[in-house]
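=== Discrete structure encoding ===
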Amino acid sequence: MKLIRDFAVLLACLMVGKGMATLLPFSFPGSILGLFVLFFLLSTQLIPLNWVHDGGQLLLRHMRLLFIPVAAGLLGYADLLSDGLGLMISSALSGLVLILLVVGRLYQRMLS
């Protein structure tokens, strides 16, 4: 019964987020807005953490299984992904280096 309540709260936050996304004049993922709604409710303690803890733990424990359909769908685009693989790797590495440089510089400025 506790898991049903946990999933009901999580699903309600998701539905509220999707409803908010339809009202926005631009495209934004409703699931992200649902996470913001859940964060707001938990941080203001309108919903106690124990109402979503066990359901969230169950979802986190089985997250690998939830990503299998996404990974299988990506296999359909293997040729497209292999064409841009070099660009994706270089952009990820350059972004990593840029972030490290900026964070390092900010840390040095904070220390002095």
